[in-house]
Design a protein that fits this description.
The complex is a heterodimer of chains A (about 425) and B (about 60). Chain A has 15 helices and two strands. Chain A has helices at about 15-25, 25-40, 45-70, 105-130, 135-160, 165-170, 185-200, 220-245, 255-280, 285-300, 310-335, 340-360, 370-395, 405-410, 410-415; strands at about 80-85, 85-90. In chain A, a hairpin with a 2-residue loop joins strand 1 (about 80-85) and strand 2. Chain B has about 60 residues and is mostly helical. The relative contact order of chain B is 0.23. The chains are: A mainly alpha (about 425), B mainly alpha (about 60). At the A-B interface, helix 6 and helix 13 of A face helix 1 and helix 2 of B.
Chain lengths: ~425, ~60
């Protein structure tokens, strides 16, 4: 009697769709890098792209070296403690440098790839918010810390069978935290880390006048920004589809629902931002519309396979309102200088995405909203203080901000020794005093 | 003010954790919301602290 060999995950239709989807995810890294470069001034464009490339490279290496060990996956070893008579899974215990990768299940192997690309996306977020004043070396070290410590901890809790997913069995809270596309794990964690870095660095020298009035420092190339939006769309579609299949155990058909919902949310968010800026300023604002597009992608990322399309539309529309409002509040009232709007786009829209999943996701279990609130509480109460403390300690040993003369010259000349564009192409208003 | 804000955010999270471990149903939900409220208060302090730090360096 012949035995039938066991079918591995990547031999199933869902596994094939998942693997193909994961391969789209790096496009989101490229998209966010272009957005960061385009929304900065021309004197820092090459620096922005190089920072993105270096942060991605360092992120991948650190994640393979130790990050995945802490993040792990649900069928890999982890450290569990008993509290209140319930098992709580705190941290992964997979081998460093993926030593036993060949013995991982094929699902865990795809999860490694997905999480590695997710790290690359998350690493772009602080780079955008801290643009035009964050030294290249410091941004690389800070990224290594984020990817090696902060990100893997939350990723384990949300994606790797950690205590946030155990909320279903331990506390009866819905299906545990639902965040298959990384609205919290990638975007909110990256956005809150960006906020911590921006607080430590401070605002750009010419951003605020002595009367506390913010100067408009527009991006130098909106074509790059809008092209980046299209790339981010493709990349996040892939990441969301793969996440739904791996972390939500959805079938291959779920990819179609995910693509539909994420796209509808992005469209609604972009059009809302477009309309608000059209009414407020008399003309639509390209950069805020681009921010709205990405915010829509982010907001639908929490549970895209479980949302009805009408809910995705509503989630996107609210994300569009949110991103325009938060960009304005941060700049005008809270004096947080974020050149790309990354904190509003990723942190605010990511947190809204988690809340929205609790409200709109089609889950039969009760009290899902409490599980989502616990996830948000963990982001604000653990990820933000940890990121702040780690970056503050780094800043004590390695000053992260460029010196004033370097900032005046531009990051390209001061750190790289050459500009991104020929001198004739440089925008003259980049150098005008405010 | 910065350290207080960070500690408040952390304290809010710990309230949430203990509510999950020790309480059930309605009381659990109330304490999760309370913990989140403490975290929001910590965030407000953090924003204010950095606002004043920025003004002080001008």
């Amino acid at each position: 009697m012949s035995t039938v060999p066991a079918i591995t995950f990547t031999e199933t239709p869902a596994g094939v769709v998942c693997l193909i989807s994961v391969l789209f995810a790096p496009l989101a890294i490229a998209g966010l890098a272009l957005i960061n470069a385009g929304l900065g001034r021309s004197r820092s464009a090459a620096h922005a792209m190089l920072s993105s490339l270096c942060a991605t490279a360092i992120g991948f290496i650190v994640y393979v070296a130790c990050g995945f060990s802490f993040a792990s996956f649900s069928d890999l070893p982890s450290h569990i403690s008993v509290l209140g008579g319930k098992p709580w899974n705190w941290i992964g215990a997979a081998p460093f440098f993926l030593r036993d990768l060949n013995s991982f299940s094929s699902q865990a192997s795809v999860a490694v790839l997905l999480q590695m690309f997710a790290v690359g996306i998350a690493a772009q977020i602080p780079l955008g918010a801290a643009g035009e004043r964050w030294r290249l070396g410091a941004s690389c070290v800070s990224t290594a810390i984020f990817v090696g410590i902060t990100f893997p901890l939350f990723a384990h809790w949300a994606w790797g069978g950690g205590w946030l997913t155990q909320l279903a069995t331990n506390c009866g809270l819905g299906a545990g935290l639902i965040d298959t596309g990384g609205a919290g794990t990638i975007h909110a964690a990256g956005g809150l880390t960006a906020l911590a870095v921006v607080w430590i660095l401070g605002a750009r020298t010419d951003k605020y006048s002595d009367e506390e009035i913010p100067a408009a420092l527009p991006g130098h190339n909106l074509v790059l920004v809008l092209f980046g939006c299209f790339l981010a769309w493709l990349g996040l579609l892939g990441l969301n589809s793969a996440g739904a299949i791996i972390f939500n155990h959805a079938g291959s058909g779920a990819a179609a629902i995910v693509i539909l919902n994420v796209t509808i949310s992005a469209c609604a968010s972009a059009l809302t931002a477009f309309s608000i800026t059209r009414v407020r300023f008399g003309r639509p604002d390209s950069s805020l519309t681009a921010n709205g597009w990405v915010a829509g992608l982010v907001a639908a990322s929490s549970a895209p396979a479980l949302l009805p399309p009408a809910a995705a539309l509503l989630i996107g529309a609210i994300a569009g309102v949110l991103v325009v409002s938060v960009v304005n509040w941060l700049e005008m009232w809270l004096q947080v200088d974020d050149p790309t709007g990354a904190i509003a786009v990723h942190a605010a829209a990511g947190i809204w995405g988690l809340i929205a999943a609790g409200i709109f996701a089609r889950i039969s279990a009760q009290r899902q909203w409490v599980a989502q609130l616990v996830g948000i509480a963990t982001l604000i109460g653990f990820v933000l203080p940890l990121s702040y403390c780690l970056n503050w300690i780094l800043n004590c040993f390695y000053h992260q901000r460029i010196d004033p003369e370097g900032e005046r010259m531009g990051m390209d000349l001061s750190e790289l020794g050459a500009g991104a564009y020929p001198e004739a192409v440089m925008r003259s208003d980049d150098y005008s005093p405010h | 003010m910065r350290i207080t804000g960070l500690l408040l955010a952390l304290a809010g999270w710990i309230i949430v954790l203990f509510a999950l471990a020790l309480l059930k149903s309605t009381a659990q939900e109330a304490f999760v919301l309370s913990g989140l409220g403490v975290e929001v208060f910590g965030m407000v302090l953090l924003f204010r602290a950095h606002f004043f730090i920025r003004r002080g360096t001008q």
